[in-house]
C-alpha cells in the first residue's frame, strides 16, 4: 500500500468526503440505528463513489504534504502518479482495489464501486452488535401476551462491561487533563499532520496553515524512539507546544503540576503563553519527541508552532 492510499484511508475514516483528483469522490453514507424484525440494528457508515467529483479540494494533497514533509506541489505530483496508475490498471483489467476502502469494477460502460463493509469507514461502529427486541403478540383468545424473559448476563460479561466502562473514564480523564486552546490564531487544518507549504500561486485570501494539530496515527506514524528532553538551541524557529494559556501565571502553575515532564519552557506570542516540550531549527527536529509513545499518551494534542 503506497503513501496516497494510506492517506485516503485516513481521510475516509475521519472525514465525510475524500476527493481523488481526476478519479472521483468518496462520500460517507450514514445509516442510523433501526429495528429489523426482532433485532435492534446498530448504526453504520459506508463509503459511496461519485465519479463527477473530480475537482481538487486540496485536502488529500495537504494531508500528504504535512505528514511526509514535502511541498504541496510534490504531494500533488504523487497523487497524479497514483491516479494515472489506477486508471491504467482499470483500463487493462476493469478492476481496481483500494485496501480497506472498496473495489472499483467496470460494468458495461460505467464504473461500479463496491464498498468494503469491514473497512475503515465503518470502524467506529464495528463492535456494536445487534440487540434482541421483545415483540409481544396478542393471542386469539385475547389473553395478555407472555412476559418477555430477560436473560441474566454471565459474571464474565459483567466484568468485561465494567472494565470497558472504567477504561473509557480513564481515557476521558487523560484527555481532559490536557488543556486545549480554542484561540483562532492556531488556524489548524482538520486533516493535517504537520506544516504545509502552500504555493504562492494560490489566492492571497487563503490562510497559511502555520500551526497544525498532530493526530497520532499508528499506521502512518514514525517508529517509536526514546523520549528526549527539550532541545535548547539559540533562537529556535520551531516549538513543540503541549499547552496554551491566557496568562504566564496559568502556564507556570500548569508546568508545576506536570512533574512527569522535564525541561518545559514558555513562549509568548500574540497574547498567548504557550508551554513547549522541545524546540528545533526545523519542523522535524521539534517533532521528534512526539514519536515517543509515553509522551504521545500524555500529550495527544501536541502541535508544532513555527516562529516567523
Quick synopsis:
The protein is built from 7 helices and 14 strands. By secondary structure, it is an alpha+beta fold.
Describe the model.
With 308 residues, the protein is of the alpha+beta class. The protein folds into two domains: 3-132, no CATH class; 184-306, 2-Layer Sandwich (Alpha-Beta Plaits). 28% of the residues lie in helices and 23% in strands. It is built from seven helices and 14 strands. The chain has helices at residues 3-14, 59-68, 72-93, 155-176, 248-257, 283-287, 293-298; strands at residues 17-20, 24-31, 34-36, 39-41, 44-50, 95-98, 102-107, 110-115, 131-132, 212-213, 238-245, 265-269, 272-280, 303-306. The chain has a five-stranded antiparallel sheet. It has a three-stranded antiparallel sheet with strand order 1-2-5, covered by helices on one side. A hairpin with a 3-residue loop joins strand 6 and strand 7 (102-107). Helix 2 packs across helix 3. The chain is flat and about 65 Å long. The two termini are 37 Å apart.
How far the N terminus sits from the C terminus, by CA atoms, comes to 37 Å
Strand content: 15-25%
Give the % helix.
25-40%
Rg from Cα: 25 Å
- Look at the structure and give the mean pLDDT: 78
H/E topology pattern: HEEEEEHHEEEEHEEHEEHHE
Number of domains: 2
Amino acid at each position: 500500500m503506497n503513501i496516497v492510499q494510506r492517506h485516503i484511508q485516513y481521510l475516509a475514516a475521519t472525514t465525510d468526503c475524500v476527493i481523488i483528483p481526476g478519479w472521483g469522490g468518496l462520500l460517507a453514507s450514514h445509516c442510523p440505528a433501526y429495528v429489523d424484525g426482532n433485532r435492534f440494528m446498530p448504526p453504520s457508515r459506508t463509503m459511496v463513489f461519485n465519479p463527477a467529483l473530480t475537482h481538487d479540494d486540496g485536502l488529500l494533497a495537504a494531508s500528504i504534504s504535512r505528514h511526509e514533509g514535502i511541498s504541496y506541489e510534490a504531494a500533488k505530483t504523487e497523487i497524479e502518479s497514483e491516479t494515472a496508475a489506477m486508471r491504467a490498471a482499470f483500463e487493462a483489467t476493469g478492476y481496481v482495489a483500494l485496501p480497506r476502502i472498496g473495489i472499483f469494477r467496470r460494468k458495461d460502460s460505467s464504473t461500479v464501486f463496491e464498498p468494503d463493509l469491514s473497512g475503515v469507514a465503518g470502524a467506529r461502529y464495528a463492535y456494536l452488535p445487534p440487540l434482541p427486541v421483545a415483540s409481544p403478540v396478542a393471542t386469539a383468545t385475547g389473553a395478555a401476551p407472555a412476559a418477555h424473559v430477560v436473560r441474566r448476563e454471565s459474571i464474565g460479561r459483567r466484568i468485561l462491561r465494567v472494565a470497558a466502562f472504567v477504561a473509557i473514564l480513564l481515557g476521558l480523564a487523560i484527555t481532559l487533563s490536557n488543556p486545549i486552546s480554542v484561540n483562532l490564531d492556531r488556524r489548524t487544518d482538520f486533516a493535517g499532520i504537520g506544516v504545509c507549504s502552500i504555493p504562492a500561486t494560490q489566492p492571497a485570501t487563503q490562510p497559511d496553515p502555520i500551526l497544525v494539530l498532530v493526530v497520532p496515527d499508528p499506521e502512518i506514524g514514525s517508529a517509536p524512539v526514546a523520549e528526549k528532553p527539550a532541545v535548547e538551541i539559540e533562537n529556535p524557529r520551531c516549538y513543540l507546544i503541549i499547552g496554551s494559556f491566557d496568562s504566564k501565571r496559568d502556564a507556570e502553575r500548569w508546568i508545576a503540576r506536570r512533574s512527569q515532564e522535564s525541561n518545559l519552557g514558555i513562549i509568548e506570542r500574540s497574547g498567548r503563553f504557550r508551554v513547549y516540550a522541545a524546540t528545533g531549527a526545523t519542523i522535524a527536529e521539534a517533532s521528534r519527541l512526539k514519536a515517543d509513545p509515553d509522551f504521545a499518551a500524555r500529550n495527544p494534542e501536541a502541535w508544532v508552532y513555527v516562529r516567523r
